Amino acid sequence: MKAGGSQERYTLGDHVLQIGVVLGAIAIVLGLAASVYIGLASHHIPIDFSFLSQVSGLHLSEGLTLDLSRPWDLVPFSSSDTNLQALILGLYNTLKVALLGIVFSTLLGLLVGIGRVSPNWLLNRVCLVFVDLVRNTPLLIQLFFWYFAVVLQLPALRSAAQFYGVIASRQGIYTPSLLGVPAWPDFWWAALASLVLAAVILRLTRRPGARAFRWPGIAVIAIAWGVALAALGHPLRIDLPVASRFRASGGLAFTPEFSAILLALVVYTAAFIAEIVRGSIEAVSTRQWMAAYALGLKRHQAMTHIILPQAFRILVPPLVNQYLNLAKNTSLAIAIGFPDLFNVYGTVANQTGRSMEGILIVMVAYLALNWLISLVMNLYNRRLMAQGAR
User: Which residues of 227-244 are buried (b: 16+ CB within 10 A; e: fewer)?
Assistant: First the structure.
């Protein structure tokens, strides 16, 4: 490989080497697959995926699955559904935990990372203790802590206090949610069209000569929405949870198992993200701080407008690894009985005896999930690099 300016040039030998490595990896995988197939066939155990269409008979109370008669329609799971629908429910729960975990761990890690470089001694020490304590404790132990020592120790539902509509009890955590009025589908399409129109306006007004039309165009959309809301009413309403003696209704409900696995993953991953953020901020040249102060910016303004945008270009590649780890660590939910993909697979495999086929499905699902995360983050990283090169 030869360096040519800022671009790296690959020689013919580099391409041949890469192709050889890929072909070798494919040959190893095919060889292992053939060995497994021959081994199972010698014991009269053929690989068969017909168990996916069998009725599962499982009782899974959390999550949604696909109605196979109406594709893309998510419905609650019932015991008469098939094993395939049970695995889809497990994948749905895994995706739910992974996506929420990525969002909340990023926010928490960003705050803790900024606190790690704060000149405030107390804030800096608190963040340091948090990072050291969490990073040096196994995730499984933290998961048990959040489940048995925190979530299950909350008060019973009948005696749980409400805090701004949020009810935290050992039966689950309930938060306010938004409910659509009957006219919500029309509003949904209008909202989608408005977002597309706003994106087009922002795109077309990027040039200096057209920037004068940017905010008037956005203002026209906002005024149109204001007039529509005044004439037709609000498309959404807040649904507050209401607790009775044994159960709560309304709002958004999180089971104890889901709350515990989400808390454990968010706190654990945020500690690692905080160190990535700290290292990325410290990698930005101190002359950038001096230049920002010379312009009269205060510390938080320099951090927001000067330092963090440059730090993001450094932290995105290592951040991808943390996201991938988080997605894979969702499989630890089996320890507290949360019906994620790996947990549901175990139950289905025990009932059908199709462990090999089930684990292949689970591996492919996690592989696809991690490829998707990598793809999105690489596209985002490429966009950041392109902006920095301008």
Answer: eeeeeeeebeeebbbebe
Burial of 329 (0-12, 13-18, 19+ CB in 10 A): buried
Strands 162-163 and 70-76, by their bridges, are unpaired
pTM higher than 0.85: no
Residue 162: helix, strand or coil by DSSP? strand
Pairing of strands 162-163, 172-175: unpaired
How many Cβ atoms from other residues are within 10 Å of residue 344's Cβ? 28
Q: What is the pLDDT of residues 273-324, one digit of tens each?
A: 999 999 999 998 888 888 888 888 888 888 888 888 888 888 888 999 999 9
Cα angle 99, 100, 103 (rounded to 5 degrees) comes to 90
The alpha-carbon radius of gyration of the chain (Å, integer) is 26
Q: Name, of 108-112, 215-219, 350-354, 378-382, the range with top average pLDDT.
A: 108-112
Positive or negative, the CA dihedral 245, 251, 256, 260 is negative
Element spanning 12, H or E:
helix 12-42
Please give the Cα distance from 324 to 317 (Å, whole number).
11
Q: To the nearest 5 percent, what fractions of the chain are helix, strand and coil?
A: 70, 10, 20
Q: Which helix (H) or strand (E) holds 73?
A: strand 70-76
> Does residue 13 have a pLDDT over 70?
yes
- Sheet of 172-175: strand order equals 162-163, 166-169, 172-175, 252-254
Q: Compute the distance between CA of residue 319 and CA of residue 352 in angstroms, rounded to an integer.
A: 39
